[in-house]
Amino acid sequence: YDQMAYYSYYFYDIKNLSFLEYIQIKLSYLTALYHLEKLNIFNYTADQMLVEIINHENFNEEHKIIYKEVLLLKARYLQDLKKLNEAIKIYLDLFKMNVKDRALRKTLISLLFQRELMSYQRHFAWVVICVLITFLLIYIDAMVIKAAYPHLHNLWFAFYIFSFGLAICITGAIFIKSYVVSKNRLKGGSLD
Fold first, then answer.
1. Which of 48, 91, 112, 160 is deepest in the core (most CB within 10 A)?
2. pTM for the structure as a whole
């Protein structure tokens, strides 16, 4: 709250500082807005700040660093709102600015992986069905098969192991395919 109050109280004095000092103070204000979850003000201020930095007559390395920090905050904001596609676009732009940034690469792959997993919701429904069938078969085995038909216990055991194994295989295949697709999309630069 101190940074917000300081910025609000001294706004006109801050505007009269050099541009670099002004955007550094505004960045701390923006960070405070993000952490205090003042999201409407944050979004407006972040967009305004990006336009100010881009339209400034001198765009040097210090301005570029602050520009990246504002984009990173905006991407986190979109990620918090579960707007993955928009966040991925910003992270991809940031990644193109610095391809060697491993932390950014991991974040981008993680978001692409998360988005890819969300596209397999129907497949996860099959996993849940297989697990439920497994539990049902185990229950029937414990209540009926062992008591009335002990000679069928091994066959019944094979059925529920197969059902559970199928659930594990489907899950593994989804995760592997999602990871490979995410890595390939990052390499190719394609988000679709």
1. 91
2. 0.73
* Helices of type H across 56-152: 61-80, 84-97, 102-118, 121-140, 146-148
How is residue 185 written in tokens? Answer: 């999309």
- Residue 75, judged by CB atoms within 10 A of its CB (0-12, 13-18, 19+), counts as buried
Assigned token pair, 175: 């995760």
Q: How far apart, in whole angstroms, are the C-alpha atoms of residue 173 and residue 10?
A: 57
Q: Is 59 helix (H, G, I), strand (E, B) or coil?
A: coil
Tens of pLDDT, residues 71-93: 999 999 998 888 888 998 888 88
> 153: which 2 tokens?
């216990």
Q: How far apart are the C-alpha atoms of 29 and 108, rounded to whole Å?
A: 26
